[in-house]
Design a protein that fits this description.
Elements (H helix, E strand, L loop, with lengths): L1 E8 L3 E8 L4 E5 L5 H10 L5 E3 L5 H4 L2 H8 L2 E5 L11 E3 L4 E4 L2 E7 L8 E5 L4 E5 L2 E2 L2 E2 L7 H12 L6 E4 L4 H11 L4 H15 L7 E2 H7 L8 H7 L6 H13 L2
Parallel strand pairs: 3-4, 4-5, 5-6, 10-13
Antiparallel strand pairs: 1-2, 2-3, 7-8, 8-9, 9-10, 11-12, 13-14
Helix pairs in contact: 4-9, 5-6
Length: about 250
């Protein structure tokens, strides 16, 4: 069993503490600051065996040196970014497996936001750690890759089971929701979800993690093949990558 604790960090980031209860092994995903993570560990009487990294941006790795020094843990991260992430001990890429005690994650290359971004999928636990590739009702900006790469990465994640739980890297959901309705205004489930998100945020509650099946039905970035979205954009005959690129560009400019 993999126990997962969501840790708010910085102003709108999320890190995660993973506890494989069978082996007692502990991992921390994408730590940008030490305080909240150390507080969570101390409250549970836990250490760290692994730091799990998805990509090189500082709001996901800034605390790695301090945590590695304090806890003597190892760091797993993208082979493609070994030159940009200090302190990596284990390099992984598409098709590799990462073992956290008895829990095993499949690694996907998911370039787009960055060229070296990877995602971890714990199939037995239905836990997806996708950082800035897929957000609740959104996706990451395409900073280093291409729109085609980003769509291919999202298509990989869309192919996972509906009961997967999406643990993403940021609390951007309210902004994503307000944008989503501009390209998918006739989606009743989306409208219901927007109302729920607005209520959660008014109450200071998180909207992360989310359910992948719900994302498939309401997240426009996972639905460039949807006829209603294509009609709204006037792109009935375009490719999925072209429609995705138009959605992403509109969000960038919103």
């Amino acid at each position: 069993m993999l126990e997962i604790q969501t840790i708010p960090v910085l102003s709108d980031n999320y890190s995660y503490v993973l506890h494989d209860t069978g082996s007692g092994k502990i991992a921390v995903v994408d730590p940008p600051e030490t305080g909240p993570i150390e507080a969570a560990l101390e409250a549970g009487g836990l250490g760290i065996d692994w730091i799990v990294i998805t990509h090189h941006h500082m709001d996901h790795i800034a605390a790695v040196p301090a945590l590695k020094e304090k806890y003597g843990c190892q760091v797993v991260g993208p082979a493609a970014d070994q030159h940009r992430i200090p302190g990596l001990d284990l390099l992984v890429r598409e098709g590799d497996r990462f073992q956290l005690g008895e829990a095993e994650a499949q690694v996907f290359d998911t370039p787009g936001h960055t060229t070296g971004h990877i995602t971890y999928w714990f199939e037995d636990e239905r836990a997806l750690f996708c950082a800035d590739t897929l957000f609740a009702l959104g996706c990451g900006r395409v900073f280093e890759g291409t729109m085609e790469q980003m769509w291919e990465s999202l298509a990989k994640l869309r192919a996972l089971p509906d009961d997967a739980i999406v643990h993403c890297g940021h609390e951007y959901t309210l902004s994503n929701a307000h944008f989503a309705v501009t390209v998918d205004p006739d989606n009743d489930e989306l409208m219901d979800r927007v109302a729920e998100i607005e209520e959660l945020r008014r109450d200071g509650m998180p909207t992360v993690p989310s359910n992948l099946g719900v994302e498939k039905r309401t997240n426009p970035f996972l639905r460039p093949d949807d006829a209603g979205i294509r009609a709204q954009l006037g792109m009935a005959g375009a490719t999925n990558a072209e429609v995705f690129g138009e959605i992403r560009t509109r969000k960038d400019n919103s």
